[in-house]
Amino acid sequence: MTRNDDARPEPAHTPAPRSAPETLPESAPSAAYPVGLRLAGRRVVVLGGGQVAQRRLPGLVAAGADVLLISPSATPSVEAMATAGEVRWERRRYRQGDLDGAWYALISTDDPEANAAASAEAESRRVWCVRSDDAGAATAWTPATGRSEGVTVAVLTGRDPRRSAAVRDAIVEGLRDGTLAAPRHRARTPGVALVGGGPGDPDLITVRGRRLLAEADVVIADRLGPRDLLDELPPHVEVIDAAKIPYGRFMAQEAINNALIEHAKAGKAVVRLKGGDPYVFGRGMEEAEALAEAGIPCTVVPGISSSISVPAAAGIPVTHRGVAHEFTVVSGHVAPDDPRSLVDWAALARLHGTLVLLMAVDKIGPISEALIAHGRTPETPVAVVQEGTTAAQRRVDATLATVARRVTDEGVRPPAVIVIGEVVTVGRRTGEG
Q1: What are the tens digits of pLDDT across the range 62-113?
Q2: What are the backbone dihedrals phi and psi of residue 396, each rounded to the nearest 5 degrees, phi first?
Q3: Is position 244 annotated as part of the catalytic site?
Q4: 344: helix, coil or strand?
Q5: Contact in structure between 423 and 354 (CB atoms under 8 Å)
Q6: Does 241 participate in catalysis according to the annotation?
Q7: Which one of 98, 201, 222, 397 is the catalytic residue?
Q8: Of 199, 3, 187, 24, nearest to 103 (Cα)?
């Protein structure tokens, strides 16, 4: 949209406003001319501080618009934006002349007369105007918009906003997960992405992680990563099971580091797919350091840690008001009496919050004994959640005194998350778990 404010005639000399059609023709969507407005630094007037403004203001602020909000009241979220200085707020009703100098107006008050008057002013001043109460009287429509990695999708269907949103969602989801073919024509920079795959359910990987998987040439995957996603990769993608990399004279982690470096130096886009989060007992920093030393670009994509997501999937909140105000995540792969252990089990036993153990199934006997010996009550509730968030998920409940026997009797095997604390009983009270 091209504007020249200096050349714009004063209101007294503008042509009479054109009357807006009372109804939209059936072909209304085709009558709209789509355009992207560049509003950075330009005045935008929003009339009304309700739910419509709450939805639209973040996009206007993100576009860099100079936003003036005019409304006697506002929702708490809108008021917070004004308090933070993101928008200017004049706490009053609309007055004739409020749209002077505006490039764009959003009219969303609950006063039909004020809306009509503001709409007429917008027409007379040639200000593009959206009306939340009467699309037919507006000179602009707000599309359903979505964004994915530098691409903005805007969909207009006229009278059917739900359809607009559905089409928008389908396109954005396709761009994000790679099911919608939209190849980049710029050369990609070879490198490695350390992607946290989440707790196991393929739907719980982040949007960015799934997109990077779709763009990968090589995927080096852990056993606990979301394996179902590997089946969706195109045939040309080389998938390497990290557990099967020949170690030779190298330690396992060193062999994985070398494989990442080798493929990246060959010009490949490499994804290192890990379970949970790369930096939560995932040795992600070791890989990032090795890549940095080799001069390989590295991107870290956080993942949902099983330490919080698996308990949640089993109906257990790791914190709960009045029950636990803290939670501690501990690796249980080393027994308390092992000289290599870096965990202060005596200090953990004195805590009142929730204790979450990862990789602790085969060490739960010595761990529970250590906690009891250092003062934790034997009746402390415990839940063991095996293969959380997957179709094979199951939960075994016990106490600190009985958990080792229960794990053996029930045949619990890794991967499993063990939750110790009073929060284990919260889900039972609400019918969950």
Answers
A1: 999 999 999 999 999 999 999 999 999 999 999 999 999 999 999 999 999 9
A2: -120, 125
A3: yes
A4: coil
A5: yes
A6: no
A7: 222
A8: 3
